Amino acid sequence: MIKHYLLSPGPTPIPNEVALAMSETMIHHRTPQFNKIFEEARNGLKKLFGTKNDVLMLASSGTGAMEASVANLFSPGDKVLVVNGGKFGERWLNISNAYGLNPIELKVEWGQAVKVADVEQQLKAHPDVQGVMIQASETSTTVFHPVREIAKLTKNGPLFLVDRSCLGENPKSKAAAILFRFEPRAQKPAKRLRCVHSCGVSHFRRARFYKNA
Ligand SMILES: Cc1ncc(COP(=O)(O)O)c(C=O)c1O
Fold it and tell me: What range defines the domain where residue 72 resides?
């Protein structure tokens, strides 16, 4: 048998234990047995994300989770501020355009983190902005954006959408400490959860009432 190795920066290879678990007999998804596993996963994800709110699991890749946020939280014509410092910032922009939003692009030189002062300036210039979109880590350039500081700027204002596809990659984060417990041999939890590809997760800190509901 030829063993193929996945050498892309993401998705990363899954551990053998995960691949083997997937070869077990399928269980019925409307049974107490499944509910127990699902609840366990939901509660575990809450701990990982450091939230008491629900974490939504989406049968999609990370891009699908980004798209679901845009599709459900905004309406065509809404003005949003998009931090674009690499391939994935560009993706927020493309999704916003595809859904007919009115994105203001805050372009950041590749390899640089966005400056909090620049975000503040844009928010002052566009007080009607309904959302701010960013990556916690723009993995295409490996830069961490200052999301904590920007979150303070948006506290009582626009929604703040953070793509955390890099969950656990920042060694100082709580998520990294939790993941490290499961994978102590790795220097850091390589590409987050090491689950099968095409599993998106999303969580919200603040409820939003839909304009078109
Ligand atoms: C920061 C970031 N956002 C979004 C994505 C897109 O994820 P996917 O390829 O699962 O759609 C990735 C993928 O590596 C990523 O690193």
Answer: 16-204
Does 63 contact ligand 1 (Cβ within 6 A)?
yes
**Structural domain contains residue 78:** yes
Q: If you measure from the C-alpha of residue 204 to the centroid of ligand 1, how many angstroms do you get, rounded to a whole number?
A: 19
Angstrom distance (rounded) from CA 125 to CA 91: 23
* CA of 39 relative to ligand 1 center, distance in Å: 26
Residue 213 lies in a domain: no
Return all residues near 17 (Cβ < 8 A) that are at least 6 apart: none
Query: Which helix (H) or strand (E) element contains residue 175?
Result: helix 174-182
For 172-187, write each residue's pLDDT tens digit. Answer: 776 666 666 665 454 4
11 is a domain residue: no
Closest Cα partner for 69 from 41, 92, 35?
A: 92
User: Per residue in 109-162, pLDDT tens?
Assistant: 999 999 999 999 999 999 999 999 999 989 899 899 999 999 999 988 999 999
Q: In Å, how far are 23, 28, 99, 211 from 203, measured between CA atoms?
A: 30, 26, 21, 20
What letter represents residue 151's amino acid? A
CATH number, position 105: 3.40.640.10
Measured in residues, the chain has a length of 213
Q: What is the pTM (predicted TM-score) of this model?
A: 0.85
User: Which residue from 12, 63, 164, 193 has its CB within 8 A of the most atoms of ligand 1, so it is best to mutate?
Assistant: 63
- What is the number of domains present in the chain? 1
